Amino acid sequence: MTPQELKNSILQLAIQGKLVEQRRSEGTAEELYKQIQAEKQALIKAGKIKKEKPLPEITEDEIPFEIPESWKWYRIGEVFNIVNGFTPLKSNPEFWTDGDIPWFTIEDVHRQGRFISTTEKFISQKALSKNTERIVPPDSVLLCCTASVGEYAYTRIPLTTNQQFNAFVTKPEYADAVFPLYVFEFAKTLKDTLIRNAGKTTFNFLSVGKLSLLLFPLPPLAEQKRIVAKIEELLPLIERYEKAWSRLEDFNKRFPGDMQKSILQMAIQGKLVEQRPEEGTGEELYRRIQAEKQALIKAGKIKKEKPLPEITEDEIPFDIPESWKWAKLGDLAWFLDAGKSPNCQKVPVKGEEWGVITTTAIQLGFFDEIQNKVLPESFTVNCSMQVNAGDILITRAGPTNRTGVACLVKEIHYNLILSDKTLRINMTDEHIYKDYIVMVLNSPQIRQLIIGLMSGMDKQQVNISQDKYKTVLVPLPPLAEQKRIVARLEELLPLCERLK
Questions:
Q1: Is 12 inside any structural domain?
Q2: DSSP category for residue 376
Q3: Does residue 215 sit in helix, strand or coil?
């Protein structure tokens, strides 16, 4: 049960007479009704109130639920004068300048809560000159019957309201029979009833006539006070429940993502699968990569680059198994290359057209090839920039949350080239499992290292140079273990997705 459902349930119990017990000593609402009618006739006779046209009798079909025998159903219009709100002409400064009469709107609820002790806006005596009957006395309930139907408040001061609100002002003859805070609790339960009875124009609207015919369950006065006291007693418990519920909801929302991050962290720390001595070590693998790299340099297939600095103890972000090795991305890759971004049509390619990928083509862990732009016909395509299946791509410029995102191109169906905001990490399949490298680069801990390399004026536009990318640290296990780690992730990560 949500906190709101719990509140609604308590309020429903309250107005059904199920929240506190009934006490014979407190009398009945029927007895009270007879006293009220006698007082009403005396007030009419004395000329203090006017005789009103009686409202229709309440029929059995109208009664929405049972109430205790000591209670009585009334129509709202029988117990309360319903005071309409109004909005003085905004173009007339005399109605607003130096105003000292509080003028209530829904914004006052947003600003200070349900109990109104002041208002943001005030109107003048001139604005009220023909509407003196629209001053609402303190301890009246304010109810929205149009637009934000069902919004409610309780005024502690005399005020007027805008046209969205009506006020329940207890009639003089009921003054000793109705506890205003009980009316306030009742008003909280009215939203669905108001909406059902509202007329449909451009928005919901409930007329005073319809509002006055709605039913109001009235217990003896002492019981009304006990109901309010019980609700106030329960409120702190509901608030504690709401805080606990919010924490649980927050945990449930974060849990799949946190679990995913935890699994990725275990993966790059060597804690997701066991190490097997027969698979060799990361150091041995690293030496084979360097030997092949030197052979390619000697054969003129790749360029010799300036050696990267040795990794120091201070750089290492976390412990890895003894059979693994820390290596820099630039030492594992043959080279990194980028593309071009000429002025393009902002439409994706079709058929045999050539296009350039956008940074949004590179998503966390997958390649979205439809994120591209058509190259101008005048652009000369350099096929060395073409994106191919098997490429590891990473973004190097853009917003913080989009920069440093890596993916592996599994398949591609269009003629696309790299943009100048993307990089390709060229590696050998013989010694490196590319899915593993992409997983490492996208893992939270390594991604934090990448974010630390970013430069730029603000989070909306940052960049990372190729040289900086070469310094990114990669935990390197043996090739067979790389594959086993990825296979295990492919089993576990979909389970995290199903939890979302």
A1: yes
A2: P
A3: strand
**Same structural domain, 293 and 350:** yes
- One domain, residues 364 and 229: no
CATH classification at residue 414: 3.90.220.20
Output the pLDDT for position 189. 93
Whether residue 249 lies inside any domain: the answer is: no
The per-residue pLDDT for 459 is: 63
d(CA 168, CA 76): 9
- What tokens does 117 get? 């002790």
Q: Side-chain half-sphere of 326: how many Cα atoms within 13 Å? A: 17
SS3 482: helix
Verify that 314 and 169 share a domain, yes or no. Answer: no
Structurally, how many domains does the chain consist of? 2
The pTM for the full model equals: 0.61
- Say whether both 233 and 308 belong to one domain: no
Q: Of the candidates 401, 396, 400, 418, which has an alpha carbon nearest to the alpha carbon of residue 409? A: 418
Neighbours of 460 (CB within 10 A): 9
pLDDT tens column, 449-483: 998 888 875 667 888 988 999 999 999 999 999 99
Strands (E), 31-175: 72-75, 80-84, 101-104, 115-116, 121-123, 140-144, 152-155, 160-161, 165-170
Q: What's the token pair of residue 53? A: 């046209």
Q: Are the C-beta atoms of residues 159 and 135 closer than 8 Å to each other? A: yes
Interval 109-166: pLDDT, tens? 999 999 999 999 999 988 887 666 789 999 999 999 887 888 999 999 999 999 999 9
Q: Which three-class secondary structure state does DSSP give residue 266?
A: helix
pLDDT band for position 323 (50/70/90)?
very high
For residue range 171-189, what is the model confidence (pLDDT) as tens digits?
988 988 999 999 999 999 9
In whole angstroms, give the CA distance from residue 374 to residue 350: 8
On whether residue 252 sits in a domain, the answer given is no
Q: Show the domain range for 365.
A: 269-499
Within 299-434, strands assigned E span: 325-328, 335-338, 354-357, 362-363, 366-367, 372-374, 392-395, 397-398, 406-408, 415-417, 422-426
Could you tell me which of 403, 427, 420 has the C-alpha nearest to residue 335? 427
- The answer to whether residues 429 and 467 belong to one domain is yes
Phi, psi of 439 (to 5 degrees): -60, -45
Please indicate, yes or no, if residue 254 is contained in any of the structural domains.
no
What are the tens digits of pLDDT across the range 198-244? 766 545 678 888 899 999 999 999 999 999 999 999 999 999 988 88
Do 421 and 483 have their domain in common?
yes
